[in-house]
């Protein structure tokens, strides 16, 4: 197994997206499309990241050599457990929730715990997350009927470098003006409870999932706080599903990842890193460092990287 794996992004149209990934990340986007999401690493039936070498996908690699990618004992039919996305939020996303593991089977959905790392934010950018203290299901349902939900949700002003952990069950939305790197469980179950009266790309109101949302929202989740990481290393998330660390590197500083330890994901939020073999990763890149591959990196410029690991356990893979 080689030291790292690079993939071709899969772009997704979203009514709240735009063309920001062209300017912010230098991406060559599909013409005439409103792009809200770039799926950087995904192993799902409906979306399977192509290797940039053109010789397969993440899914075919996982099926052909699961032990080299994930470690000994990883079942060939178990998908890669993490999905990585860039979100270009030119408009506000719907108010939504992902089902907790305790209710997801009942709703024929998948739990989705995720983390948002803000790479760019306009001066008035914000995140919506959790409910205000005292808001319970009956009050919330009445607010849905009256179209007065916004006052019940916590609004968190967002700045570049902030981070928010969003466990399944947390009510949330992303406001306009955010460029976000999202690290999440491999799931695509989202229940919209409110969409601000907007229509979709087809000119029709988007589907809402009010009953599923009411069964999924944690009404005890109040007053969440953003992380404002500083210093050379910060742990942004440490959960059953994955651990996420933020590393600040000065020019010339090195990273080393030994082989046969665990698989990892390396995401470049700022700067440029060069591998021992001369290959480079720059701002916007997301790569997999497979279990069997050893890799070393040197920061060519001041850099900020995110390292996702501890996701190849039995618990997080189920």
UniProtKB/TrEMBL annotation:
Its cofactor is Zn(2+). GO terms for biological process: carbohydrate metabolic process. The active site is at residue 192. Residues 5-106 form the Phosphomannose isomerase type I catalytic domain. CDD domains: cupin_PMI_type_I_N_bac. One of its GO terms (molecular function) is mannose-6-phosphate isomerase activity. Keywords: Isomerase, Metal-binding, Zinc. It comes from the Bacteria. InterPro entries: Carb_Metab_Reg_Kinase/Isom, Man6P_isomerase_Firm_short, PMI_typeI_cat, RmlC-like_jellyroll, RmlC_Cupin_sf. Pfam families: PMI_typeI_cat. Binds 1 zinc ion per subunit. Gene3D superfamilies: Jelly Rolls. Zn(2+) binds at residues 98, 114, 172. SUPFAM superfamilies: RmlC-like cupins. This is Mannose-6-phosphate isomerase. It comes from Oceanipulchritudo coccoides.
């Amino acid at each position: 197994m080689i030291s790292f794996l690079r993939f071709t992004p899969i772009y997704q149209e979203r009514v709240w997206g735009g063309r920001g990934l062209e300017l912010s990340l230098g991406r060559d986007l599909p013409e005439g499309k409103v792009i809200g999401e770039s799926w950087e690493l995904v192993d799902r039936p409906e979306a399977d990241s192509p290797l940039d070498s053109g010789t397969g996908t993440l899914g075919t690699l996982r099926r052909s050599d699961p032990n080299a990618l994930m470690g000994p004992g990883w079942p060939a039919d178990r998908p890669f457990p993490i999905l990585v996305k860039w979100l270009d939020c030119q408009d506000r996303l719907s108010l939504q929730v992902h089902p907790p593991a305790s209710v997801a089977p009942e709703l024929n959905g998948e739990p989705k715990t995720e983390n948002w790392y803000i790479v760019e934010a306009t001066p008035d950018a914000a995140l919506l997350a959790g409910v205000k203290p005292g808001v319970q299901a009956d009050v919330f349902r009445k607010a849905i009927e009256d179209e007065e939900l916004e006052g019940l949700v916590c609004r968190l002003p967002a700045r570049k470098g902030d981070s928010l952990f969003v466990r399944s069950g947390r009510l949330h939305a992303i406001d306009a003006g955010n460029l976000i790197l999202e690290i999440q469980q491999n799931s695509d179950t989202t229940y919209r409870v409110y969409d601000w009266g907007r229509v979709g790309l087809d000119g029709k109101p988007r589907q809402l999932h009010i009953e599923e949302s009411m069964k999924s929202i944690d009404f005890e989740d109040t007053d969440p706080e953003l992380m404002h990481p500083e210093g050379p290393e910060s742990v942004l998330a440490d959960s059953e599903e994955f651990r996420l660390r933020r590393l600040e590197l000065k020019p010339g500083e090195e990273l080393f990842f030994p082989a046969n330890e665990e698989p990892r994901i390396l995401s470049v939020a700022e700067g440029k890193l060069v591998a021992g073999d001369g290959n480079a990763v720059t701002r916007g890149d997301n790569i997999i460092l497979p279990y069997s591959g050893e890799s070393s990196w040197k920061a060519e410029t001041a850099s900020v990287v995110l390292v996702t690991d501890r996701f190849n356990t039995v618990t997080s893979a189920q």
